[in-house]
Specification:
single chain, 358 residues, alpha/beta, Rossmann fold, 2 domains, six-stranded parallel sheet, five-stranded mixed sheet, 13 helices, 11 strands, globular, binds nicotinamide-adenine-dinucleotide
Length: 358
């Protein structure tokens, strides 16, 4: 990869390669855009097949965080930390604390939360070396798990899509297919059932499905065909990249709204969805609830403010859907244009001098 060309193409400010010669920790920190405020992003620990794959992930995920913050109306930018490989259990604390020290050197340009391969307990270890962590366990002063808030945001996205399509936001009687019953998927299922939706769900982990069936009475489905299940709303809540251009033809839903980051293989898939008449709630808007909760910790956590900001996902999506329909463009294209516009306008007000203190 020509790294500078890629940074230029995506608009990144900074990519930092970190190596600790004693523990062998290798980590890449990507900071995409800090026009609105310090970068925020999760820390992923993953056995990447190559350095290039890790770098690609860091660049892509940090970029998405910028979009997410901008459209959630919060003053933060996009960042990401990826750690290459998996520490031996006895090395884990050392890796995390070494990483914490590297993050501290950025003096708050980046705040880090949990992601695939890391837990809130890992953040508590990192916090021994850096101030700049979000999403600590409640016992450490954090706001706790983000699953409930993230799921609430996805519900708001579904309601906006239903309102746009059918003139009513009610989920009552709607058939929703959920892929992935993890922290967000299971909570989403619970909130859907409470609202009278009929949920069909799948997970590659049979225990997760068993729990949802016994506790919530939902219909189980095959994880290999869940995306093709006939339904009103498809909710991808597992991994990214699950819908490609060819797969669009097999979908049997009217709306897609879920929590997974980047569920579409690329942005052209969004245009294919539009052509098939499937309304897509861009993931970086629908799944912003988790980020809204975490960044609120940095402002002095207020549950009421978090609720208010998560509810706003409904209004933002109504605007995106209406503009996309009016302009005959995909919802992703329109949403990205809104991000650009917000970054441009807010950066521009920084031309106003705050005066000189010395
Ligand atoms: P999780 O790891 O708790 O759950 C993911 C679930 O998906 C697991 O139960 C896993 O077994 C299942 N799964 C994996 N591959 C599958 C497949 N092919 N078919 C069916 N099930 C499959 O993760 P989570 O925190 O619930 O997050 C889910 C998604 O939402 C991720 O993409 C994550 O990045 C995104 N997200 C999460 C949050 C949050 O606050 N947790 C916020 C924003 C976005």
């Amino acid at each position: 990869m020509d790294i500078f060309a890629e940074m230029k193409r995506r608009g990144h400010e900074q990519v930092i390669f970190n190596y600790d010669r004693v523990t062998g920790l290798q980590a890449i920190i990507a900071i995409h855009d800090t026009s609105l405020g310090p970068a925020v992003g999760g820390c992923r620990i993953w056995p990447y097949p190559s350095e290039e794959a890790a770098l690609e992930d860091a660049l892509r995920l940090s970029e998405t965080m910028t979009y997410k913050a901008a459209l959630a109306g919060i003053d933060f930018g996009g960042g990401k930390v990826v750690v290459l490989g998996e520490p031996e259990p006895e090395q884990r604390e050392l890796w995390l604390r070494a990483l914490g020290r590297f993050i501290e050197t950025l003096h708050g340009r980046l705040w880090v939360g949990e992601d695939v391969g890391t837990s809130a307990e890992d953040l508590a270890l990192m916090q021994r070396e850096t101030h700049y962590v979000m999403g600590l366990p409640v016992a450490y002063g954090g706001s706790g798990d983000t699953g409930v808030t993230a799921a609430r945001g996805v519900i708001a996205a579904m309601e906006a899509a239903l309102m746009h399509r059918h003139g009513s936001r009610s989920l009552e009687g709607r058939r929703v297919a959920v892929q992935g019953l993890g922290k967000v998927g299971l909570e989403l299922t619970r909130q859907l059932v409470e609202r009278g939706a009929q949920v069909v769900a799948a997970d590659i982990n049979p225990h997760a499905v068993g729990k949802a069936v016994s506790e919530l009475g939902i219909e189980p489905a095959d994880p290999w065909t869940i995306l093709e299940t006939p339904c009103d709303i498809l909710a991808p809540c597992a991994l990214g990249g699950v819908i490609d251009a060819e797969g669009v033809g097999r979908l049997r839903c009217q709306i897609i709204a879920g929590s997974a980051n980047n569920p579409l293989k690329d942005n052209q898939v969004a245009e294919k969805l539009r052509q098939r008449g499937i309304l897509y709630a861009p993931d970086f808007i629908a799944n912003a609830g988790g980020m809204i909760q975490l960044t609120d910790e940095l402002e002095g956590f207020r549950a009421e403010r978090v609720r208010h900001r998560v509810e706003a996902i409904y209004e933002i999506l109504l605007q995106v859907f209406a503009s996309a329909e009016r302009q005959g463009r995909s919802t992703v294209e329109v949403a990205l244009e809104m991000v650009e516009e917000r970054l441009r306008l807010l950066t521009d007000i920084h031309r106003i001098s705050l005066g000189r203190s010395r």
